Amino acid sequence: MLKERFVGLLIFAYFLFTSRFSSAHPLCRAHERSSLLDFKASFAINKSVSSDPSAYSKVASWAQGRTTSNCCLWDRVECDEDTGHVISLDMSSSFLYGNIDSNSSLFKLVHLQRLNLADNNFNYSQIPTAISHLPMLTYLNLSYSLFSGQIPSEISGLSHLSSLDLSRNYDFNSREGLLGLLELKRPDFSSLIRNLTNLEELSLSFVNISSTVPTSLANFSSLTSLILKGCGLKGKLPVELFQLPSLQILNVKSNNFFGELPQFNQTSALNVLNLASNSFSGEIPTSIGNLNSLTEFHAYDCGLSGEIPFSIGNLTHLKYLDLSINNFSGPIPSSIGNLTQLIELDLDSNHFSGPIPLSFSKLINLESLYLFKNELSGTVDFDMFLRLKNLTVLSLSNNNLSLIIKPSVDGPPPQYIFLGLSFCNLSSFPDFLTHQVRMENLRLQGNHIGGPIPAWLMNMSTETLLGISVAENSLTGELSRAICNFSSLSVLRLSGNKLVGELPLCLGNFSDSLAALDLRDNSFSGSIPTFAKGNQLRIIDLSHNQLQGKLPRSLANCKMLESLSVENNQLNDVFPYWLESLPELQILVLGSNKFHGVIKAPQTDLGFVKLRIIVISYNNFTGMLPSNFIQNLKAMKSSSVGDLRYMETTYTLRPSGGNEVTFLFGFTITITIKGVRRYYPEINDDLSFIDLSNNNFGGEIPEVLGDLNGLYALDLSNNNLTGGIPSALANLKRLESLDLSQNKLSGRIPPVLEQLSFLQYFNVSHNNLAGPIPPANHLMTFGSSSYEGNLGLCGIPLPNKCGNSEASGLVPLPSFDEEQEDHSGSPFQFGWKVVAMGYGCGFVVGVFIGHVVITRKSRWFAMTFCVKNLHVKRKPRSKRGN
Ligand SMILES: *[C@@H]1O[C@H](CO)[C@@H](O)[C@H](O)[C@H]1NC(C)=O
Ligand SMILES: *[C@@H]1O[C@H](CO)[C@@H](O)[C@H](O)[C@H]1NC(C)=O
Ligand SMILES: *[C@@H]1O[C@H](CO)[C@@H](O)[C@H](O)[C@H]1NC(C)=O
Ligand SMILES: *[C@@H]1O[C@H](CO)[C@@H](O)[C@H](O)[C@H]1NC(C)=O
Ligand SMILES: *[C@@H]1O[C@H](CO)[C@@H](O)[C@H](O)[C@H]1NC(C)=O
Ligand SMILES: *[C@@H]1O[C@H](CO)[C@@H](O)[C@H](O)[C@H]1NC(C)=O
Ligand SMILES: *[C@@H]1O[C@H](CO)[C@@H](O)[C@H](O)[C@H]1NC(C)=O
Ligand SMILES: *[C@@H]1O[C@H](CO)[C@@H](O)[C@H](O)[C@H]1NC(C)=O
Ligand SMILES: *[C@@H]1O[C@H](CO)[C@@H](O)[C@H](O)[C@H]1NC(C)=O
Ligand SMILES: *[C@@H]1O[C@H](CO)[C@@H](O)[C@H](O)[C@H]1NC(C)=O
Q1: Which ligand 4 atom is nearest residue 156's CA?
Q2: pLDDT digits (tens, 9 = 90+) for 415-437
Q3: Which residue range or ranges hold the Leucine-rich repeat-containing N-terminal plant-type domain (predicted)?
Q4: What are phi and psi of 57, to 5 degrees?
Q5: Which CATH entry fits the domain spanning 111-455: 3.40.50.800, 3.80.10.10, 2.40.160.20, 1.25.40.390?
Q6: CA distance 147 to 180
């Protein structure tokens, strides 16, 4: 066997030599020439098929002519030196577009040994069974070419194959993520490879296999590369894979493997091991230290836990180590400092504790270091990072670290692209920021930085900066118009500071790509600036300031706007019905201002159709509750019960020449009930609620409210509403909170309300209701405070029994049960806790502006969307395997 390969190698070398240097080229066979021309003619040439920058049409130069008729000289065609038969055809990235079937003249080239059709568009053709006419094939590559259907058993007859690549035939137009088009069911994986024992490279990524890995792979002693990404594979990862003596690359990313990792064998030659995005359990075995040829180890989002074994320091060739998004705990082993070749180290989103090992200062080749979202603690002398001159991406955010930043003693600081130092106990802006000229993202949220924003900060990386957050610090003073120097900014977060004065006028038009503007919770005054046409704003949060005047009509220019919050200011305006022209608007929070007047019906049927959360409480709106307006709220009428997802929105931009960056925005809420505010960092995707409380609405509660069957909460309290409680409210099947208190409602509580089985909070106190409280179990479980102040109500839980005279108008005494209300164990509080955790129902006040995803780190995206590889678009192959 070995001998054979050696001889083969010699022949190959000879072939190379002769084909390069001999002047006597083999002459092409006429019938093969016409087969090649027929093959060429059977496709359209379509440049949009490939986005590989080096792609070009290899067949373009093929032609029949006196000087060109020797097809052995054609581009990417090779003939056998002696016989003149075509033995190799490389049509990769050739812009071929069209169907291919068994009639294709390609299959007349029966001497072919190497065939590469990768990166074309075969228009969902099946792999032709006539592939069996090419029995000499040693190399077959049909990847990334839009083949679909079951892989034919004929492939398993190609017993000379040493390299087989059927990967990445997926539909990149699908919004569902990447759906593999090829299937390996009949034959299955095991029978496909049974006779292919010469295989050295096998790639079946995104082939829908959905079985276990055949243990027969253990016999494939020549196998050097096995790539099985996204194949729906399940079961345990066979230990035999780690005993294959030649295996250098093993990639099983994005499958459904479970169970503990096997022991790693000392004889292993593995270079690249990718176990990411599976459902393993248990620890990384100490025997990982045996894999001392490893250069890449990817095990993010894998379900692993326990401590990282010290033996990982044995893997001194490692360049990439990614253990993020697992449940690892304990200290980060100091032995990682021995991995001096490391270029990227990702340990984020685990439970690592203790200090950052000082040995990290030995990682001089490091370019990216992610440690965010752990429980690391202690004081860190930042100088250890300033010495890592190649470090461009560093995130230490969201730990319990205290950074000491002194001027570096050791030359100029590194030029960062991404710097995350949120919640790092900083008390001032680090000096080294002055020298940054290509920063794209700076995060300093949740520190103790006081004083005004220094002028120099607003001259840092003005061209490149995409996102900056200095939220939740103690910044004071006015916001200088120099903030508008950041001409490419997408995200500006200054919330939770003590900034004062008027907003610079330029704020509404300084960056074409501004997507999120978060100035919440400062002391800004004056009016809201004008927003330019064509802006990209998705989130505007100006709440909890002292802004005055009207809402600028230019908000109607924010066509992408999803969330607008101006809660708790001193705005004095009528209802902004003109926002109905914003097709994406989901959240509108106007509470606690001086809005007033009657709410008009929307002008069109399409106004406010996506609105799901509306809070206009604590204003002075008057008139009837607007039935027409309510009728338009289509988003609140859906009651689809899907997976629990959190509401978020993304925004992707590609700065010229830079990496594609995707911002992920989440939405946060604060619930206020009876003066108790609670903050929740995430809200459910289909949460919808209406808060019209504390206004001066009059008239009756409109029946159409009963159509909004997606509603979780409805608060109409503290108005001047009259009439009865409509029975139609019983249609609000998801309702968890209903507050009608402090109105002038009369009549009985409709017994059908007992159908509201999710109701956790119910309040009709202080109205003119009468009659018995419906004896449904859960309506009775609400405390008497839910019913008090209605002179005519009776029955449990009120102290006054209805008796036989309840209809005769006997007036029971009102009850004031303050004690029960404050009781911490009351059903009311318990109820709301449950609601808040499960669904996050309440007043929306803020936004959080989430992670930034750099395309290279595709997994962040995958993780947050629960759809693997959603972001992958058709683009040139990256140098790295994932
Ligand atoms: C080129 O291919 C794309 C699909 O990749 C297709 O949408 C387009 O219509 C094709 N153009 C021509 C001229 O065939
Ligand atoms: C691709 O397939 C579709 C349907 O199968 C067919 O209508 C279309 O003509 C094909 N396109 C090419 C370029 O062969
Ligand atoms: C092959 O071509 C013949 C005639 O040209 C036709 O009858 C047959 O259906 C074709 N087969 C396939 C698989 O396209
Ligand atoms: C494998 O090879 C054996 C003998 O060479 C043959 O009988 C069998 O049909 C082949 N199996 C497949 C799946 O091609
Ligand atoms: C390591 O692999 C060899 C075969 O390559 C095998 O004989 C040996 O039992 C394996 N050792 C362990 C500990 O799995
Ligand atoms: C570390 O690697 C050496 C070989 O370089 C090996 O002998 C040793 O067993 C390994 N240690 C661990 C703990 O895996
Ligand atoms: C690896 O690092 C640890 C602690 O940093 C050290 O004790 C050990 O000697 C190092 N091992 C090698 C092989 O460098
Ligand atoms: C840093 O990066 C440069 C350029 O990419 C490279 O030449 C150098 O080897 C890297 N490592 C160190 C320690 O500078
Ligand atoms: C609310 O509006 C009414 C009538 O429009 C007015 O009389 C009243 O003073 C307003 N109340 C407040 C607090 O502005
Ligand atoms: C409440 O509504 C009644 C009519 O139903 C009206 O007479 C009264 O003035 C309203 N009260 C306020 C404060 O607007």
Answers
A1: 14
A2: 999 999 999 999 999 999 998 99
A3: 31-80
A4: -80, 110
A5: 3.80.10.10
A6: 10
